[in-house]
Amino acid sequence: MLCKIKKNSVIFVSNFFQSMLVKKKKVNIITLGCSKNLVDSEMLSGQLKYGPYEVIHDSDENADIVIINTCGFIHDAKEQSVQTILEQVQLREEGKIEKLIVTGCLSERYKKELPAEIPEVDAYFGNHHLKDILNYLKVDFKKELIGERLLATPPHYAYLKISEGCDRKCAFCAIPLIRGAHKSVPMEQLVAQAEKLASQGVKELMLIAQDLTFYGLDIYGKRQLAQLLKKLSRVDGIQWIRLHYMYPAGFPDDVLDIMRDEPKVCNYVDIPLQHIDDEILRSMNRGAGEKQTRKLIRKIKERIPGVHIRTTFIVGYPGETEEKFEKLTDFVKEMEFDRVGVFTYSHEEDTPAYKLTDHIPEQIKEERKNRLLDLQTEISKRKNQAKIGKTMPVIIDARYGNEYLARTEFDSPEVDNEVHIITDRILTPGKFAEVKIIDADAFDLWGELI
């Protein structure tokens, strides 16, 4: 009996050390497109890291397996996705990677065409195929790991996807074709995710969805974004909650009250308006015209003192005359939005707008885009310089020698302003600091520590 125990012990120890010596294969997940895709990649990595794999995100390191999470939303995004696939195919053919897997929106939208045109890819998967990808890589799906993520962002902020898909019928948009119908994530799951992220050091949550304002309608019978914000605000460790992508039609008023009264919810509204001309908005099937849009913007500014509004517009949509474009520029001048993004219209097959004639030359689309961006640059510079002399809290994002990059509550990572701080003091990324703004241009602020 004693010999048997010793023998079994030797076998156990031998197997243990052998398993320790087995080198894990490295998986590089390349994520293209929006932050919703990024969350999908993080969820996939959360399962893979418990298998025989080491997971890295968007890395230049050598990897055994590359997974490309593609975007298929508009023409430019599709081109980028195809180019990235072809670059990795070349590495696959040179023997520098063992397997190449493509997933995400492009392969969901073109599930027949892509394998025929780029057969060198080892496997294609669409959206919502997490279990299939894991099965292909011989990793068991673990239900208890739902919500587990390996963050691709800096450790102090994370995106929280509160719903999938979209029920809106915007004429230019392919998202419902790619992502399917709107489906809210139950509130208790989102709170559990937030608690998990907070325990890992996340200080800032950015809520994302194709339309945040629709949250809860499918599972609770009414819009529940305000109630969700109340629950997330109670999560210890989370200090900022930021809202991205809120649809203007049917905007829930109770969310404005939460933003005004709850200190953790940033006074930052991301609300894509797309245009202001009634005829264009009707053709886009946006559900709100100029009158409703103006009323909503006034309400937001009145209810939330000091609010910063980010919006996006589409130029070159079918039927946009020079007169209609000028109306849009006049609107932007009048409203003085804090942040503006501009896209040129992309004629996407299978969307309702595809039946319209895409008659505006690309050169004119680009020219209108640049005119609108130049106008917004002037507005942004003026609004930023009005902050000089003011004191405000910032979150430290990164350090480069004695220079730190930070953000105010009015700025989202990668798309908005940064605050530059030069100091010999040691600051820690993810911590908050008080700064006095001493200089500003259109897209950057400079601050000194208080």
Characteristics of this structure?
alpha/beta, Rossmann fold, globular, OB fold (Dihydrolipoamide Acetyltransferase, E2P), Transcription Regulator spoIIAA, five-stranded parallel beta sheet, disordered N terminus, 22% strand, six-stranded parallel beta sheet, 450 residues
Describe the overall structure.
There is one protein chain. The protein is of the alpha/beta class. Among the domains are: 24-144, Methylthiotransferase, N-terminal domain (Rossmann fold, 3-Layer(aba) Sandwich), CATH 3.40.50.12160; 154-270, Transcription Regulator spoIIAA (2-Layer Sandwich); 391-449, Nucleic acid-binding proteins (OB fold (Dihydrolipoamide Acetyltransferase, E2P), Beta Barrel), CATH 2.40.50. The protein is 38% helix and 22% strand. It contains 15 helices and 18 strands. Strands 6-9-10-11-12-13 form a 6-stranded parallel beta sheet. The chain has a 5-stranded parallel beta sheet with strand order 2-1-3-4-5, sandwiched between helices. It is globular, with a radius of gyration of 24 Å. The model is unreliable at 1-21 (pLDDT under 50).
Question: Summary?
Answer:
This protein is 38% helix and 22% strand. The protein is of the alpha/beta class.
